[in-house]
Amino acid sequence: MKLDNIMKQAQKMQKQMMEIQEELANRTVEATVGGGVVTVTANGQQQILSIRIDPEVVDPNDVDMLQDLILAAVNEALRKAQELMTAEMNKLTGGLKIPGLI
Q1: Backbone torsion region of residue 31, taken as left when φ is above 0, otherwise alpha when ψ lies between -120 and 50, otherwise beta
Q2: What pLDDT, in 10s, does the model give residues 24-68?
């Protein structure tokens, strides 16, 4: 009887995880660097959706700075997306760390 109950709970949790993953695909986070000159938007599944660059920051003589700004914005957006995903999964698990889940 206990094994049957555990299996039902596991199936319920799996369904809830799938629902959270679908929801995360529709939620976005945004990271802006350089005083707003580069903005990166990512979804909760850590996919980059868009990169906006202020044309005034594009200097052909300083491509390295633009690359650094883009890299910083992408990394910050992915960090925020990871935080969002962790927060949503913690709601499901009650903060219990389950290896391989997040």
Answers
A1: beta
A2: 999 999 999 999 999 999 999 999 999 999 999 899 999 999 999
Each domain of the chain, given as residue ranges in start order, spans 31-94
| CATH among 3.30.1310.10, 3.30.300.30, 3.30.70.100, 3.40.50.300 for 31-94 | 3.30.1310.10
Listing from the earlier edge strand, what are the strands of the sheet with 28-33?
28-33, 38-43, 48-53
Beta-carbon contacts of residue 46 (< 8 Å; ≥ 6 apart): 78, 81, 82, 85
Predicted TM-score (pTM) of the model is 0.76
